[in-house]
Amino acid sequence: MERQGADLFRRYNEMKKQGKIPYFDVEEFDEVAFLYETKGNYNEALTVIQNGLKQHPGNIDLLIKEARYLLYVEQVDEAEKKLSVLPYEDEEVIVLKAELCLYKRENRQAIEWLNSLLDHENFSSDLCLDVLDLLVDFNRMSELTDFAEKALQRISDTTDILRELASIYEEKEQFDLALKTYDRLLEQDPYSSTDWLGLAKIYAIKKNYEKAIEACDYALAIDENDLNALSFRGYCLFDTRRYEEAIAAFDEYVKNGGSKSIAYELMAECYAALKKTKEAIAYLTKAYEINPRDVETCYQLAVNYFDTGEMQSAIDFLKKAIAIDDKDSSLYSFLGEIYLRQREFALAENYLGKAVFLDPNNEEACMLLGDLKAIQEMPEEAIPYYNQVLNLTPYDIKVTFKLILAQYNAGNLEEAASLIKHLDQIINENGTAEIPDNNKSDILQARNMLDTLRNILRDNLDEKI
């Protein structure tokens, strides 16, 4: 908040604490109310305006704002009373009357009010944008498109309206309409790098990366130093697995003054995808040197050191990440996994336990705790952890096999047999229709594993399976 506004805000609140209201002019009351509005405190903004009306009774600007805030706090009947005595021809009053009708589901009357604005002498791009925002808030998309088309015929510079339309269509996932809107913008001004980039983003959302990259190229032909276009082109190349080209794009981004830490992380991700782990570590190290407090950089360094078998370095960076953010369950889970692999069971249990404490639905940590107890030949203690994973992902074949073995090793033969029958039903071809796609491949590969398991356990479970 600017100094003058902050001073007004402070003075108003100090006087209010004393049970007094300072004498402000209309603009000053308006400023204080607006500051409350920016904080989302519409009730207090309404109170400020009503205090202003005590000092400036009948002021039209304050009366209009009172009606607006009454609508914001959903005092619809009171807002209607206030609006009924306000000047009919005022554009802001008409917008408020339309909003009132939308609250009351009187949609036809609302659109009539809004359409009447099109013939006003003062109809402007800003007023049109206010109407579009209102219609978006009430999800009246067909009416929004219709109003915008009419408005575009009445305004000479349509750029702001078309860009707002494109943004709205993107937000509402009406991507084909967004593409058409960007096409219209580029017909008006084919040298707008901003609109070429907007077009690229919509194509990328639609997974049409070739067209997205082409649109970025047009943007860069107009402004070869456009950082947004350079970085977005790199993202698109990465998503199409053109990692070498993506690295070159991010390198160009850095040379033109882009954020080095972000670019180095992205380049590292490309190298990791190319299985060039040493190069990935080198760029992540550069990013870490720039911003050692970035949790994601520390985590990615740990991942890459883990992949190269440098476990102590992985541990060190995970501990650095935890020192920055000690509430991230996944960090503890990863650290616990490393200690489990190193058979440092006490440390593994400590960190995995913290992971589950922070997030009881951390499947990986629950699975690893179950594995830890199974390795320690404590199957009874492994069972609850495997059950927790199955509660979260009922069709997880791997954990089902582990639970069967844990039940068997704990001497719970009935439970083991019951699970085998349940697993047999899951992997039956007739039973896979409702199974999530990400589990189907595991399930369809499980038949031979189930036969092997039966053979291993048959001596004790033969009558039950």
UniProtKB/TrEMBL annotation:
Coiled coil: none
Keywords of this entry: Repeat, TPR repeat
Placement of TPR repeats on the sequence: 26-59, 159-192, 193-226, 261-294, 295-328, 329-362
Protein name as catalogued: Tetratricopeptide repeat protein
SUPFAM superfamilies in the cross-refs: HCP-like, TPR-like
InterPro entries given in the database record: TPR-like_helical_dom_sf, TPR_rpt
Entry's transmembrane regions: none
Species in which this protein is naturally found: Candidatus Gallibacteroides avistercoris
Keyword Repeat: yes
Gene3D superfamilies, per database record: Tetratricopeptide repeat domain
Cross-referenced Pfam families: ANAPC3, TPR_19, TPR_8
